[in-house]
Amino acid sequence: MTLKKDNITVLHFARWYPNRYDPMYGLFIQRHAEAVALYGTVGVIYVHATPDPLIPKRMEVCYHRENGVHTVRVYYPVSRCKQKQIGQLIGMIRFYKACNLGRNRIAREMEKPDVVHIHILTRMGIWGLYYKWMHQTPYVISEHWSRYLERTGSYQGWLRKFFTRMVVMNASYVTTVTQNLAGAMQRHGLTGVPYQVLPNVVDPVFFNPPLIQSKPPNLKTFIHVSCFEDKSKNISGLLRAVKLLFEKRNDFKVVLVGDGMDFDRMKNYAVELNLNGKQVEFTGLLQGEELVAQMSQADMLLVTSHYENLPVVILESFVLGIPVLATRVGGIAEIVDPCNGLLISPGDENELVARMDDFLSGVFKFDSEMIKANSRLHFTPQAVGQQLIDLYSLILRKNDVD
Description:
Layout: E1 9-14, H1 27-36, E2 41-50, E3 60-66, E4 69-77, H2 84-106, E5 115-119, H3 125-135, E6 139-143, H4 158-169, E7 173-176, H5 179-187, E8 195-197, E9 220-225, H6 230-233, H7 235-246, E10 252-257, H8 263-272, E11 280-284, H9 288-296, E12 300-303, H10 312-319, E13 324-327, E14 341-344, H11 349-360, H12 368-375, H13 381-401
Parallel strand pairs: 1-2, 1-5, 2-4, 5-6, 6-7, 7-8, 9-10, 9-12, 10-11, 12-13, 13-14
Antiparallel strand pairs: 3-4
Helix pairs in contact: 1-13, 3-4, 7-11
């Protein structure tokens, strides 16, 4: 499909972005940038501090054109100074020097931006102020970090809060993936600017899943997909609930997809609970078509987090027509309703067991085709890209009037 291009040039400064050390880091930001590139000219600058001895002291600047996006990644060495304050100062200087190198490199590929888009505060927000004050270029902020939520309590430090407020109050708009996150930011005094909820983009590969192979008629599959960080994702609680349910019935299995800091510990914990490989399967990290193929075989997605923003895996599940059983945390309740899933209290393993049991017994039934159709109206690259282009256009029209 050929899309009409708008004459809007957007420069994104991303605090998180896929890189040579972690191809999944900030993947949702990359998808936003690629969605905008369907309609306009887009550039992304990302800088990454690394202890890698192969990175030269003068920094490494890498340019690629990725799915229509002019992408510059700058790798710079971490400070090895043993004195903490001096090391932090050196790190900050290198960070902004790397950003400036990125700006110089991307200027060879695209014109001066009409709009600057900042992803993740606070450091990158300085570039929003720079472009507004020095070039009269408006900027948008997209915040993805859950640190503002009361449960995490990690938004601290008077200097951080001062600069964050300054950056936010000078922005034209702030977008968040949920109203819950927007409210948390506003409760921290980050006000004086309009907020808009902007959904994440679902990878196009999910819109063309493989044909589902025949499933065992009397065996349902639950699937869990995460980064295996147990403190937030509560995989251990999920395993305990699964153990309890297997004591009652055996007409199901659970597939856990992903990798991360607690992957080995969770595998060992499953063994401690006497859960065998036929009951609980750990696949490791799956991406792209492999992930789609695995998720397509599932009957229900399980999200058991203690705290969340809005996991993109829920959107991916909906696009595949798969209902969700999730904890009522963050912005999950904004998108999970009785037509597409079930909500439970965080940390309540007995309720988790009961709802899984009810689903297996047919107490709750869901229309897979309706779930699929509704989600495909909102989470495509085209839909989200158009939302962003409309937002940029609104800001530019307002600036022209002012």
